[in-house]
């Protein structure tokens, strides 16, 4: 990272939908209530120079409801769960309990044929660290401020990487819908401002 300036990255979890409520490995736009809450929260977003969104419908829909002109960024995509996509965790657990148990206990396991937890953390960590090498802001002395709407798993992976946590800690991090988590990068390290709810409630 260039000496003398800081990059601040705010990660915003998307609005809720049925798949999130059911812990289903699926993608769909936010539901009507989630969109109302996102629209109400738009004014609470921090200042940003650049906005990004993961490619999922849920994240893109949330970014639009928040009023963001966000660049769709494939590197910020959700964990690839392979053949489990479209199924709920309960359903998979009933049909393949040993596979689920292995997945939850071994960060290098991918019984679904998709991406391992370690691969997710590496991918998101590479994106974070690359942002520390982006050009410095035009205004000297001011932090570069970025914002990204990303799936909860991506927020959790970012925290594991930024804080140097053991990979299994991923499963012990909760990320609520429409909360913001801020990472500040300076001189080869990341500092954390823990997730806080965006202001604004649906009428």
From TrEMBL:
Gene3D superfamilies recorded for this chain? Answer: Phosphoglycerate mutase-like
Q: Name the source's superkingdom.
A: Bacteria
The protein in question is named Histidine phosphatase family protein
